[in-house]
């Protein structure tokens, strides 16, 4: 594969064949608790996509320009989580200052994002897989979009399920996990479409 | 009274306050490694170590943490213990470290750790917090280990890497793939909710 196209391949792989939620189980907590309504899911999905794309790129810069030269790689967990938390806080303040509407739409989700495993997970994956800067950015963006698609699909299905008769023990998280399982099976249909080693 | 309190603290997370079944917390980072019993065991031990010691540490210093930057301090302490787990795993068990990949680091964002610290350790004495942390880790661990047991047995016909089922067994490869993890957890939640949680409700009504 030509090097130019590699980031594009990673981008599509992160959405379909290697979906961060359905094949790597990351970001499950907020996925299960927030996916009851379509609108809130969309809000959280957009916020996650944005934060994922930016923090993955930001963490790449800090890791390769600061931690590696000083041989402090083992500190990456602390550094990454601080960068993510600080960035989320910053975004919250900016949105609050400039756009009240957006603040009320996204504001409540932003604190949730700091503890979303998908954000930290994408940064750790990009270090382990040794991606370049551009590839990391596309990987973060693709992971975010993949997460967005998964939570939107889940919210849509769950809204339909409101009138369905579900066994009492399976109601709530149980049925959500069953749906997630079926969605993971559906996404497995994409495997083989893109090969990245 | 003190001994009774300790026992109660220890037993609650194993049964009626189980973090996975009842609170559906912290399944993110660990469900991913439940396709093999051995991986799950290592991961569970890491989580137990982190919860117990960070609860203990934060409970020790709970009176000196300004509440405004509480979350930051908690995250730092948790991350420190996770780094200890990560480096020791890398040094003593490199193959496992490679297999687990980013999931060790993701213990930091495991909601159970933060949840126990916020809900318990900041209000209670260090020893009690240590017990609560250990018990929460165990309550979490046995659920994941039983999921891993079924997944590895049905998916590969072996346990802990040893072949258990003979050549007559056809592997259910879906079990070791991602959907298997979702289905197993859903089935476990279903069984638990149907059986002993319902019993608990009846007792409340009686």
Key words describing this protein structure:
heterodimer; A: mainly alpha; 9 helices; 71% helix; globular; B: 206 residues; mainly alpha; two-stranded antiparallel ribbon
Query: pLDDT below 50 for ≥5 consecutive residues: which ranges of chain B?
Result: none
Strand-residue proportion of chain B: under 5%
Question: How many angstroms separate the termini of chain A?
Answer: 11 Å
Strand order of the largest sheet of chain B: 1-2
Query: How many domains comprise the coordinates of chain B?
Result: 1
Helix/strand/pairing category of chain A:
mainly alpha
Count of DSSP strands of chain B: 2
SSE order of chain B, one letter for each helix or strand: HHHHHHHEEHH
Tally the helices of chain A.
Answer: 9
Q: Please report the two chains with the greatest interface, counting residues with C-beta closer than 8 angstroms to the partner's C-beta.
A: A-B, 43 and 45 residues
**What spatial form of chain A do the alpha-carbon principal axes imply?**
globular
Q: What is the makeup of the main sheet of chain A?
A: none
Task: Assign a percent range to the helix content of chain B.
Answer: 55-70%
Q: Which range does the strand content of chain A fall in?
A: under 5%
* Gyration radius of chain B, in Å: 18 Å
The unreliable regions of chain A are none
Could you tell me the number of beta strands of chain A?
A: 0
Number of domains of chain A: 1
Shape of chain B: globular
| Quaternary organization | heterodimer
Overview of the molecule:
The complex is a heterodimer of chains A (197) and B (206). Chain A is mostly helical and 197 residues long. Chain A has one domain (9-188). Chain A is built from nine helices and no strands. In chain A, helix 4 crosses helix 5 and helix 8 (133-161) crosses helix 9. In chain A, 46% of the residues are buried. The model of chain A has no long low-confidence stretch (mean pLDDT 84). Chain B has one domain (33-205). Chain B has helices at residues 2-11, 28-31, 37-60, 70-92, 94-100, 111-121, 126-156, 173-176, 178-205, and strands at 158-159, 162-163. The longest helix of chain B has 31 residues, at 126-156. Chain B is globular, with a radius of gyration of 18 Å. A two-stranded antiparallel sheet of chain B has the order 1-2. Helix content of chain B is 69%, strand content 2%. The mean pLDDT of chain B is 81. Chain B is an all-alpha fold and 206 residues long. Chain B is built from nine helices and two strands. The chains are: A mainly alpha (197), B mainly alpha (206). The A-B interface holds A 22-29, 32-33, 74-78, 81-82, 85, 115-117, 119-121, 124-125, 127-128, 167-170, 173-175, 177-178, 180-182, 184-185, 188 and B 24-29, 31-32, 71-72, 75-76, 79-80, 82-83, 86-87, 101-102, 105-106, 108-111, 114, 174, 177-183, 185-186, 189-194, 197-198.
């Amino acid at each position: 594969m030509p090097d130019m196209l590699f980031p594009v391949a990673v981008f599509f792989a992160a959405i379909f064949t290697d979906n961060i939620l359905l094949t790597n189980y990351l970001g499950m907590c907020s996925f299960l608790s927030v996916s009851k309504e379509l609108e809130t899911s969309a809000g959280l999905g957009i916020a996650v996509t944005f934060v994922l794309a930016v923090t993955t790129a930001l963490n790449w810069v800090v890791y390769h320009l600061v931690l590696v030269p000083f041989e402090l790689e083992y500190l990456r967990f602390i550094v990454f989580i601080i960068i993510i938390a600080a960035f989320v806080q910053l975004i919250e303040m900016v949105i609050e200052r400039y756009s009240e509407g957006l603040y009320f739409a996204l504001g409540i989700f932003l604190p949730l994002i700091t503890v979303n495993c998908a954000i930290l997970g994408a940064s750790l994956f990009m270090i382990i897989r040794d991606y370049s800067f551009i590839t990391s950015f596309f990987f973060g963006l693709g992971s975010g979009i993949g997460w967005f698609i998964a939570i939107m699909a889940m919210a849509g299905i769950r809204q339909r399920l409101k009138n369905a008769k579900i066994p009492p023990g399976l109601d709530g998280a149980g049925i959500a996990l069953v749906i997630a399982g079926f969605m993971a099976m559906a996404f497995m249909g994409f495997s083989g479409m893109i090969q990245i080693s | 009274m003190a001994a009774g309190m300790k026992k109660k603290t220890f037993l609650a997370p194993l049964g009626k306050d189980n973090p996975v079944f009842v609170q559906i917390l912290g399944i993110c980072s660990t469900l991913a490694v439940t396709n093999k019993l051995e991986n799950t065991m290592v991961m569970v031990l890491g989580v137990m170590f982190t919860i117990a010691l960070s609860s203990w540490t934060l409970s020790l210093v709970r009176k000196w943490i300004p509440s405004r930057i509480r979350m930051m301090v908690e995250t730092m302490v948790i991350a420190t213990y996770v780094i200890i787990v990560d480096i020791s795993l890398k040094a003593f068990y490199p193959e496992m470290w490679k297999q687990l990949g980013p999931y060790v680091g993701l213990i930091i964002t495991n909601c159970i750790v933060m949840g126990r610290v916020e809900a318990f350790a900041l209000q209670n004495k260090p020893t009690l917090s240590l017990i609560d942390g250990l018990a929460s880790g165990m309550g979490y661990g046995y659920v994941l280990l039983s999921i891993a047991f079924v997944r590895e047995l049905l998916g590969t016909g072996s346990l802990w890497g040893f072949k258990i089922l003979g050549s007559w067994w056809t592997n259910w490869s879906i079990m070791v793939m991602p959907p298997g993890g979702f289905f197993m957890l859903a089935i476990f939640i279903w069984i638990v909710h149907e059986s002993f949680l319902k019993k608990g409700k009846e007792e409340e009504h009686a």
